């Protein structure tokens, strides 16, 4: 009995310990390393210990028995980060009401979404997966690492900003969707702005009520008849915005609506982390740079609606050159696997250098998500989140061969090809068996 | 001044002005010093391309440039034939969600009378963007229903539809009914639906043949009645008479097989469009001799078991099997991305030279215009692109584009808007 209990405790503690232990050890050898922030090493090694980059140098001798990946002739870059997507979720829009700040994407994470695999097949290691744009104020977004095969809890990046989704223009207006029954307020850009203002005014009122209550409670006067205000989850979220505990990620297309939202943020004193899509950002690069507001854009996806019909491919490059911090996002479970292609296009349209282009999908999104201390570039002390490409990642002919998160390999093309071959063999054998069976019948 | 000298002077003035206008016309152009990639034949380093009257007069290393020729200095540049988009909506759509700007899809199911070139908007904002990325010719296609209409081949320059049209009717487009993927009892409904639609297609072709017969008979015998005019059958006549190929949109392996049988049974000239499951039935396609235009490779395969890269490697597999193929953008707003579909296929196993052919000479062959275009050869139309690198590469900049021997404007709404707001 006693031995059994001891054994049980041992097993449990082992399981608990292993689930808490962080990352793996790995040595990547002889690759061309594009660190993004610290230049290029033509032939170098990266040592990852317990998921963290310990050393980047030439000829590193790793600890005994460490797993080694030979990256000779390959390109090693930091894992790609998608600043705006909707993968790994069982729902995106809570569109029944216009204001739904209380919903959280963390509650609908889906670790089995195959888009996670699609993402890692394109070198993506981290995504900001977001509420949709049906509402002027949507829900709270979440940052996860694309650890395919792990639980959603294990994927969550706790270091990232808490972000709340806002949306302007045609989508919250429901301009491109058939109206069923009475149209939902708002139906115009006036209404979108007004409803956001209304909610922040409400939130201020709510905060004040709580302050008064807490003050009264503390005071020495009788608190007999004191009733606490009703807890409102929606208001709590907006209060967190006003307290600076959360930042805004705002879906916007037109230059004018973007400027209006900046005015709103000043009116109430909340922080805008980033504008999403910002198709007309090139028109207001000056204001964005001055206000130090970042943008996360498509490189050239455009003309799918009126407000996207001036979203020129030069915008990302032009804004970068004018001092705006830009990232390129996918907003899609497909485009997510070729963000490096989009980055390359920013060299053609906008004249960015290789390093500037790579930044659009690595360190820049990391900064936008508040995770630049752990991800976004290859530096000692950061997480071992890495993508290995067979050719230069900005070449049209390149493909991702390995995607590594915290020293652990999550995507391996060689392994994939092996498995595919085996599967095809099996399939053929089964077909033969079936044919035989049919024959005997 | 005598009368004679006056007449002489007038004639002289007319003659000189005629000569002057002649000099202004394109005449002879020489592209000098380019690394020429003719696509058909070997590359030529530091070569010359001579253009006369819109046609390629000579391509080679030691070519004499006639006096007075306009010279384009292409030192350090690469010369390619203009690319051909195998299927797109250029000029037929401006903003996809705004119905008022979408003209490639008719209502109803049988629309052989619908012609894309008759809805063409020469001033579309998407055309200059494509052109400035080295695409000079495109097949503009209809979509929707069962028989969608007729596609046309256009050059990406011109003020009127007429100036743009190369071939007003290239193919009759059919959306092949798709059989259900999984055979189960629950699926009997859609399965019947699909085979019913295939029967419907066959029936209408049969009717068209009969319509032709009655017309022929009436031609010979005045006493016979003409068949009552039927618009649908009338426009299907070139198809059943073997003059107009059908372009069949088909994707799943089962459907491809069914479509091959359909083409054979009906004795049609055919081109396949899409063919995303082609790699599963490569041999069947090869045997059928039907060429393939791939749709955009930018989709996640619907079947997980096929692997994440199924669409990417499909062209490589089909090329290896010996299938004639071309690439397409399948888009208006992203038609400029045509070369990157070819490059993606090359990344996943297609030979890079073949990939280039898939956007130049192969589509020309498939659409029956390879004597006119698709490569840099003597006698062909001078559709030429001068680039600072590999034309399929994302980072390459296009410096000059010539269509029919004339240098075309490579500015677009992209550059216009940028310049406008740079002035801020």
* Overall outline of chain B: globular
Mean pLDDT of chain B: 93
- Counted beta strands of chain B: 16
What is the class of the largest domain in chain B in the CATH system?
Alpha Beta
Low-confidence stretches of chain B: 15-26
Map the helices and strands.
The complex is a heterodimer of chains A (441) and B (424).
Chain A: H1 2-20, E1 26-34, E2 40-49, E3 52-57, E4 68-70, E5 75-78, E6 80-85, H2 115-120, E7 124-129, E8 137-140, E9 142-145, H3 152-155, E10 163-167, H4 170-173, H5 189-218, H6 233-242, E11 247-252, H7 255-268, E12 272-277, H8 285-291, E13 294-297, H9 315-321, E14 326-328, H10 339-348, H11 354-359, H12 363-369, E15 386-389, E16 400-405, E17 408-412, H13 413-440
Parallel strand pairs in A: 1-4, 1-5, 6-7, 10-11, 11-12, 12-13, 13-14
Antiparallel strand pairs in A: 1-2, 2-3, 5-15, 7-9, 8-10, 15-16, 16-17
Helix pairs in contact in A: 5-6, 5-7
Chain B: H1 3-24, E1 28-36, E2 44-52, E3 55-60, E4 70-73, E5 78-81, E6 83-88, H2 126-131, E7 135-140, E8 147-155, H3 161-164, E9 165-175, H4 188-220, H5 231-240, E10 246-250, H6 253-265, E11 270-274, H7 282-288, E12 292-294, H8 310-321, E13 325-326, H9 338-347, H10 352-357, H11 361-366, E14 384-387, E15 398-403, E16 406-407, H12 413-422
Parallel strand pairs in B: 1-4, 1-5, 6-7, 9-10, 10-11, 11-12, 12-13
Antiparallel strand pairs in B: 1-2, 2-3, 5-14, 7-8, 8-9, 14-15, 15-16
Task: Note down, in words, how this protein is organized.
- The complex is a heterodimer of chains A (441) and B (424).
- Chain A is of the alpha/beta class and 441 residues long.
- Chain A is 34% helix and 21% strand.
- In chain A, α8 links the parallel β12 (272-277) and β13 (294-297).
- The longest helix of chain A is centred in the middle third of the chain and has 30 residues, at 189-218.
- Chain A is globular.
- The model of chain A has no long low-confidence stretch (mean pLDDT 94).
- With 424 residues, chain B is of the alpha/beta class.
- Chain B folds into 2 domains: 24-82 and 374-424, Roll (Urease, subunit C, domain 1), CATH 2.30.40.10; 83-369, Metal-dependent hydrolases (TIM Barrel), CATH 3.20.20.
- Chain B has 12 helices and 16 strands.
- In chain B, α4 (188-220) packs across α5 and α8 (310-321) crosses α9.
- Chain B is globular and about 70 Å long.
- Mean pLDDT of chain B is 93; it is low at 15-26.
- The chains are: A alpha/beta (441), B alpha/beta (424).
- Chain A binds chain B through residues 114-115, 117-118, 121, 176, 282-283, 285-286, 300-306, 308-310, 312-314, 318, 333-335, 337-338, 341, 344-345, 347-349, 391, 394-399, 416, 420, 423, and chain B through 94-98, 125-126, 298-300, 304-305, 307-309, 332-334, 336-337, 339-340, 343-344, 346-348, 352, 390, 392-397, 413-415, 417-418, 421-422, 424.
